[in-house]
Amino acid sequence: MNMQVESEPLKIGDTVSLRSGGHIMTVISIDQDGITCAWSVRDDVKSKSLPRAALIKASKPQTLEELLSES
């Protein structure tokens, strides 16, 4: 998975992932309490506020072809 430098500032619309891995998420709001991210699971959209330290900026969402080529 392509990830960028963690110190790069985040902005609304950026794609991120948890440091520990998982879904690619979209930043939907930023405030002093945390960064709210949204992601989809099947037909449901989930969101959660997370600390900045838990997130890494994704360089771009991977296509299905890119994911399959890593296998």
Low-confidence stretches: 1-5
Helix fraction, binned, reads under 10%
Taking all residues together, what is the mean pLDDT? Answer: 85
Amino-to-carboxy terminus distance: 12 Å
Tally of separate helices: 1
Oligomeric state of shown chains: single chain
Layout: helices, strands, pairs:
Blueprint: E1 15-18, E2 25-31, E3 34-41, E4 44-50, E5 55-57, H1 64-69
Antiparallel strand pairs: 1-2, 1-5, 2-3, 3-4
Question: Could you please describe the fold and organization of this structure?
Answer:
- The chain is mainly beta.
- The chain has a domain at 15-58.
- The chain is built from one helix and five strands, in the order βββββα.
- A five-stranded antiparallel beta sheet has the order 4-3-2-1-5, with no helix packed on it.
- The N and C termini lie close together (12 Å).
- 7% of the residues are buried.
Sum up the structure in keywords.
71 residues; mainly beta; globular
Q: Brief description of this entry?
A:
This protein is mainly beta.
